[in-house]
C-alpha cells in the first residue's frame, strides 16, 4: 500500500498514516485493467464511468471501491485522478468538469490525445491550482493485465516521483520524458511505426495466403524467419491467421491516433506520407464495420478487396 507518514508534534515515534487515494475515470478496455491493478495495490478509492453499468460491474467485483456519480464527486474524494478516455473531446469534457475541484489534486491523463490539446488543458489545471501529467500507454490490454506496459510521462518534473510510485502499480516501466505534451509526442512516434507495420503485416499475410502458403508456413515466416519478427508479430500474426479479432487495441483507436499524428505533423511542418496512407486504410476498414474489432482486423480490408 502506498502511504505517507506524518508525525504528531512532540510524538515522532507515533506516525499518522495517510493513505494515498486514487480514482479512475474511464473503465474501457484499458482503464478497467488499470483500475484492477491499482485495486490490487490497495490504492484505488473509487471509479467513475459515463456508462454506469461498467462502474457497477467493477463495484460488484470489488464492493469496497466506491462508484462516484460524477467526475467532480470523484475529484472531491481522491488525491490523484487517473483518466483513461477515448479522444480529445472526452478528455476535454472531463477536465472542464474537474477544474472547479482540482485545486491541490494531481491529474494523471493516460489517454492518447493531441499533445496540443493536452498542453492547453494542463495550463488550465495549473491555473486552477492542480497539476496535470500526460501519461500515455505503450502496450495492449494483455500487457496491462501482466503489468508490462510502459507509461510515458510528460509534466512538472518536481511532482514526477509521487506519480511514478502510483503508475508503477500498473506498469512494468515508467519513463519521465519531459514537460507537458512530451509523453504524448513519444507515444505518437511509437504508434506511428506500429500503425504502418500492422498494415504491412496484413498485406503480406493476405498475399502469402492467396499464393497458397499454409497458415503454418506463414506463422513460421513471420515469427521465426523474417527479419521483421517482433513482439507485435507474435501478438498479431496468430490473430490475423485465425480471424480472432477480440479487442486488445481497437482499430478505431488506431485510426484516431493516426489522425492526431497527421494534425500534429502539419503544425510541425513535417511530411507523413506512410502514416497518411495507413490512416486512410484504417478509415476504409472502419467503413467496412471493423472499427470496434481488434486492430488485426485490418487484414479483412485486404481479404475483401482481393479478387477471386
Kindly describe this structure.
With 308 residues, the protein is of the alpha/beta class. It has 2 domains: 3-179, 3-Layer(aba) Sandwich (Rossmann fold), CATH 3.40.50; 186-305, Orthogonal Bundle (N-(1-d-carboxylethyl)-l-norvaline Dehydrogenase, domain 2), CATH 1.10.1040.10. It is built from 13 helices and 11 strands. The strands form 3 sheets. The chain has a 6-stranded parallel beta sheet with strand order 5-4-3-6-7-8, with helices on both faces. A 3-stranded mixed beta sheet has the order 9-10-11, sandwiched between helices. The longest helix is centred in the middle third of the chain and has 29 residues, at 182-210. It starts with a strand and ends with a helix.
Quick synopsis:
Helices cover 51% and strands 17% of the residues.
Return the CATH class of the largest domain: Alpha Beta
Q: Give the low-pLDDT segments.
A: 5-10
* Alpha carbon gap, first and last residue: 60 Å
Beta strand %: 15-25%
Mean pLDDT: 94
Strand order of the largest sheet: 5-4-3-6-7-8
The largest sheet, given as strand count, sense and whether it forms a barrel, is: 6 strands, parallel
What does the secondary structure layout of this molecule look like, with pairings?
Layout: E1 3-8, E2 11-19, E3 22-25, H1 29-40, E4 44-48, H2 52-61, E5 66-67, H3 71-77, E6 80-83, H4 88-98, E7 106-109, H5 115-127, E8 131-134, E9 137-138, H6 141-145, E10 150-154, H7 160-167, E11 173-178, H8 182-210, H9 215-225, H10 231-242, H11 251-268, H12 273-287, H13 299-305
Parallel strand pairs: 3-4, 3-6, 4-5, 6-7, 7-8, 10-11
Antiparallel strand pairs: 1-2, 9-10
Helix pairs in contact: 4-5, 8-10, 8-11, 8-12, 8-13, 9-10, 11-12
Amino acid at each position: 500500500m502506498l502511504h505517507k507518514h506524518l508525525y504528531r508534534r512532540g510524538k515522532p515515534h507515533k506516525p499518522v498514516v495517510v493513505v494515498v487515494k486514487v480514482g479512475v475515470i474511464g473503465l474501457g478496455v484499458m482503464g478497467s485493467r488499470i483500475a484492477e491493478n491499482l485495486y490490487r495495490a490497495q490504492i484505488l478509492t473509487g471509479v467513475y464511468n459515463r456508462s454506469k453499468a461498467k462502474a457497477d460491474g467493477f463495484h460488484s467485483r470489488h464492493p469496497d471501491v466506491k462508484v462516484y456519480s460524477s467526475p467532480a464527486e470523484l475529484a472531491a474524494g481522491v488525491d490523484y485522478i487517473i483518466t483513461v478516455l477515448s479522444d480529445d473531446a472526452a478528455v476535454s469534457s472531463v477536465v472542464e468538469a474537474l477544474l472547479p475541484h482540482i485545486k491541490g489534486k494531481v491529474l494523471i491523463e493516460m489517454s492518447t490525445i493531441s499533445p496540443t490539446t493536452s498542453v492547453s488543458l494542463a495550463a488550465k489545471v495549473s491555473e486552477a491550482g492542480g497539476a496535470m501529467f500526460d501519461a500515455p500507454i505503450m502496450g495492449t490490454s494483455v500487457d496491462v493485465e501482466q503489468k508490462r506496459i510502459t507509461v510515458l510521462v510528460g509534466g512538472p518534473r518536481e511532482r514526477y516521483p509521487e506519480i511514478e510510485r502510483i503508475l508503477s502499480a500498473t506498469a512494468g516501466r515508467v519513463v519521465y520524458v519531459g514537460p507537458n505534451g512530451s509523453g504524448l509526442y513519444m507515444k505518437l512516434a511509437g504508434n506511428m511505426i506500429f500503425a504502418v507495420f500492422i498494415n504491412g503485416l496484413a498485406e503480406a499475410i493476405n498475399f502469402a495466403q492467396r499464393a497458397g502458403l499454409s497458415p503454418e508456413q506463414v506463422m513460421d515466416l513471420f515469427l521465426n524467419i523474417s527479419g521483421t519478427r517482433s513482439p507485435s508479430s507474435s501478438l498479431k500474426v496468430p490473430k490475423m491467421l485465425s480471424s480472432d479479432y477480440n479487442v486488445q487495441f481497437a482499430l478505431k483507436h488506431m485510426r484516431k491516433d493516426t489522425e492526431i499524428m497527421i494534425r500534429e505533423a502539419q503544425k510541425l511542418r513535417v511530411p507523413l506520407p506512410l502514416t497518411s496512407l495507413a490512416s486512410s486504410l484504417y478509415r476504409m476498414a472502419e467503413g467496412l464495420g471493423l472499427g470496434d474489432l481488434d486492430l488485426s482486423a485490418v487484414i479483412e480490408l485486404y481479404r475483401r478487396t482481393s479478387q477471386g
